[in-house]
Amino acid sequence: MDYNKLTPALAEKLQNLLGEKRFQYGDAVKEAYSHDEMPIYGRFMPEAVCLVESTEEVSAIMKLCHENKIPVTVRGAGTGLVGGCVPIHGGIVISTERMNKILSYDMKNLVVHTQPGVLLCDLAADALAHGLMYPPDPGEKTATVGGNVSTNAGGMRAVKYGVTRDYVLAMTVVLPSGEVMKLGKTVCKTSSGYSLLHLMIGSEGTLGIITELTLKLIPKPVMDVSLILPFQDIATAIASVPAIKLANLDPQSIEFMERDIVDSSAAYTGSAVFPTTVNGHSVGAYILVTLVGDSEAELTLKMDRLGQVAEQTGAYDVLVVWTDGLKKDVWAARSAFLTVIEAETRLLDEMDVVVPVDRIAEFLVYSHDVAEEYGVRLRSFGHAGDGNLHIYCCANDMDEVEFRRRVKAIMDKCYAKCTEFEGQVSGEHSIGHAKKAYLRESVGETAYGLMGAIKKAFDPDGILNPGKVCG
Amino acid sequence: MDYNKLTPALAEKLQNLLGEKRFQYGDAVKEAYSHDEMPIYGRFMPEAVCLVESTEEVSAIMKLCHENKIPVTVRGAGTGLVGGCVPIHGGIVISTERMNKILSYDMKNLVVHTQPGVLLCDLAADALAHGLMYPPDPGEKTATVGGNVSTNAGGMRAVKYGVTRDYVLAMTVVLPSGEVMKLGKTVCKTSSGYSLLHLMIGSEGTLGIITELTLKLIPKPVMDVSLILPFQDIATAIASVPAIKLANLDPQSIEFMERDIVDSSAAYTGSAVFPTTVNGHSVGAYILVTLVGDSEAELTLKMDRLGQVAEQTGAYDVLVVWTDGLKKDVWAARSAFLTVIEAETRLLDEMDVVVPVDRIAEFLVYSHDVAEEYGVRLRSFGHAGDGNLHIYCCANDMDEVEFRRRVKAIMDKCYAKCTEFEGQVSGEHSIGHAKKAYLRESVGETAYGLMGAIKKAFDPDGILNPGKVCG
Fold first, then answer.
1. What's the pLDDT at A188?
2. 8 Å CB contact between A322 and A373
């Protein structure tokens, strides 16, 4: 695709539209807009940044860029890990960071209307203050909800509540032409034509720009308890998961973590909430389960059943995390894993594969073996309940070019193994421009070709987030 | 679009492929394949019927029809209500009725692999025999699961468990070209490119033919109880629903029914399971709630809370349906509503709208007023928990042309009201060829145009189920 550059005349039009404070052009463009949280995929400066505040502004900008064939990349909080919001073809970045208003709650239909730039942590807290819960709970709490919808983020509570996709009822979208389209309604059932709403979810800002969202909420659970199950090693730990899932406990989360990352987290946060030795056994891996219920009696019954499963599956113990303080510490430790890795690592790359739950251990063993073969340190944690693994390739004392070469070799093998295991290339971090080749290999030419045809139907000139997913 | 007719030479090829028993041609085509369960939308005889048994056969047929530009319409059990499986442009009907095998269970990942022609009732029973539950539970139990996926059927348990869309993990699809494409995997999380899987769900056989499905199952609930809440009228009954939803009971179903349909059902089945007078009050409408739990103690607690809500919202009483026999009778009565209406009615048409839960009563009152104005009898029941209303226009002593004229006038007004209420044209029966104009009006030209462009990307010659949804 051939794109045009932003001319000073067009820049002036945009500045008139947004005012000086909300328009960055040329040297005024802040460096932060050139990358996301995985800078190994490259830094690309946009020609201008538009800090939009309304659907109308986004529509006006898109009309201008459509007429002039200027690429546009939309960006939330920039917490992505695959270069999804990075303007690799230059042009304009539209940042939704100022569209950060929770617009209204509809308590009769249990939904919230919100702008896309609201942070996940703010939405979650605000919903709780209304007695409601927004169930999707990715580890990165400072991502925007718009970004979460664009990547179909999953998170810790997916095993009980599902993923972001399951909570999006409606949205307002600005198309590449500048046209405004409303998709979905404040209702949960529909069989009314092709689901353009579900097509938009997870499309990483390549088909349209989300400017408003209607999200489903649920009543806040009355109480919850977390339980730590320490195991000898990751294989034993993962083997307990199908049994836990079959025990009718309807757990909110089933997370796994290897000892290594738990140790780093303890060193980083200064609080060792996960025991490393239990009844004389050195712990190699953990399963962290959260149960919810309406009463202490109900939770006690569920904990008893989980205790039986734990014993049958070889857990060294079951440690109950009941007090609010301890619960906060445990989950803060869990949520800090990526931060801990980032703090300890100079060169970093990641995989976000999903494999069937019964293949997790096998996949992890395989990945560790491959990484060892190439002399790269692998660190992993993730969502045992749904098979979504976060695997980080880490190095400190290596040349970057050499690191990239080795990581590519590791990933080629691991993604091929993932496909062999009937897994998915990404669970929640999505494709961006970093994982396009692996997506193509995984879904095959026919499906990849259809994705390209859909992109063309929405964006014939290819101006919206070019070079991403299948563009 | 211009289509070709099936020539005797092509018919011979198809007969060679399928054998005599599984190929109907010309006069041998059975009349049943010319309509679904709403024959008011017309009867259209196919030129041939193929009773397929495998993906390979479907692919071979599609290749032949693609080369020769012959329309193909896929059909499950033919229980649809909008003409979705009716070959309005002639050509071939591919029936999946013989692809009725449940292929295997994967107990570690809690999924079932199945052919699309398996009946919903058979899948549900078989899953239960494996200690598992397939949550979607539409009233029509003899529909095929392939049909359910193609219409994104919802049913009674959507309020707790979601709709069919939420249980489809993977599928094998034959494209109009005859190419075979696999979508999705046995995992619940994915952010791997545009969701072609979700695009296929609810696309009514217009984008591809589903030949295999991987469906998510859940552990069978330990026990359940149903409760009947009788109210003075439909407005009072519906007003209780948001309160029930907010009471943290996580009900499996919240159904509503008007007195009129309950009386007919009692007369038809010979068993009056719903009380018509309670504490001296004549009942005008009912809410039927099902709660699930792990123990009698848990259910008793939930029932107590529901009792409080019922009292606060003006229910005359709470009738507990605890015994298996009574439960079966109550739900059999509920599931028989359409059969009862069909048995009593010569001329029938229907709407399957969804409105926000707090607008149900208002919408029903409006519909009844409009129908009365046009002298057509309206009968309704549906899913109060999710706002999905089944509204039937009925007449016995009216000329059919006159009935159609009046029903069109009623529907024009009701669908416009539905759009005004921010509702959806169809909750689970879908669009077919009967509701295309209303879909177009409801979603607008931009969205409808994008649906058309997607159809073109999948099926450039328009041979697959032509004339449906947006074709």
1. 86
2. no
What does the alpha-carbon distance between residue B337 and residue B60 come to, in Å, rounded to a whole number? Answer: 41
* Terminal-residue alpha carbon distance, chain B: 10
Is the pLDDT confidence value at A178 over 90? yes
Residue A196 contacts B, CB cutoff 8 Å: yes
How far is B174 from B210, CA to CA, in rounded Å? 7
b/e string for B170-179 if b means 16 or more Cβ within 10 A?
bbbbbbbbbb
Q: Does A198 touch chain B (CB under 8 A)?
A: yes
A108/B357 CB distance under 8 A: yes
| Contacts with B429 from chain A: Cβ below 8 Å | 191
- Helices B400-420 & B360-373, crossing angle to 10 degrees? 150
- Report the candidate in B380, B379, B401, B393 with the shortest Cα–Cα distance to residue B349: B393
d(CA B170, CA B201) in angstroms, rounded, equals 10
Whole-angstrom distance, CA of residue B58 vs CA of residue B17: 10
Show the tokens assigned to B389.
Answer: 């209303």
Per the DSSP assignment, residues forming a β-bridge with B321 are B226
Least Cα separation, residue B213 to chain A (angstroms): 15
Do the Cβ atoms of A290 and A225 come closer than 8 Å? yes
The answer to whether A181 touches A172, Cβ cutoff 8 Å, is yes
Cα separation, A380 vs B116, in Å, equals: 38
Rama region for B78: left / alpha / beta (φ>0; ψ in -120 to 50; rest)? left
- A198: which chain B residues are within 8 Å (Cβ-Cβ)? 165, 195, 198-199, 201
Please check whether residue B136 is in contact with residue B252, taking contact to mean a CB–CB distance below 8 angstroms. no
Closest residue by Cα to residue B464 from B211, B88, B28: B88
Q: Check if the beta carbon of residue B150 is closer than 8 Å to that of residue B203.
A: yes
Q: Which amino acid is at A412?
A: D
Residue of A189, A218, A441, A464 to mutate, interface with B, max B Cβ within 10 Å: A189
Decide if A99 contacts A211 (C-beta within 8 A).
yes
Cα dist. A392→A58, A381, A436 in Å? 36, 9, 18
Alpha-carbon separation of residue B35 from B77, B262, B463 (angstroms): 11, 29, 19
Rounded distance between C-alpha atoms, residue B256 and residue B238, angstroms: 8
Residue B82 burial class via C-beta count within 10 angstroms: exposed 0-12, middle 13-18, buried 19 and up: buried
From CA B294, how far away is CA B416, in angstroms rounded?
44
B311/A368 Cα distance (integer angstroms): 60
CA B466 vs. chain centroid, Å, equals 21
Query: B442 to chain A: nearest residue by CA?
Result: A192
- CA B432/CA B440 separation, integer angstroms: 13
**Residue reference for tokens 């100079």:** A346
CA–CA dist A290, A224 (Å, integer)? 7
Tell me: the pLDDT tens digits for B172-230?
999 999 999 999 999 889 999 999 999 999 999 999 999 999 999 998 888 999 999 99
Say how many Å lie between the first and final Cα of chain A, rounded.
Answer: 10
Angle, in degrees to the nearest 10, between helices A400-420 and A436-458: 80
Of residues A124, A50, A93, A169, the one with CA closest to residue A466: A93
CA A365 to chain centre: 24
Q: How far apart are CA B390 and CA B182, in angstroms?
A: 34
In Å, the largest CA–CA distance within chain A is: 73
pLDDT tens, position by position, B12-69? 999 999 999 999 999 999 999 999 999 999 999 999 999 999 999 999 999 999 999 9
**Residue type at position A4:** N
Residues of B in contact with A429 (CB under 8 A): 191
State ipTM.
0.95
Q: What is the pTM of this model?
A: 0.95
B92-95 and B72-75 strand pairing? parallel
Give CA–CA dist B454/B206, Å, rounded. 10
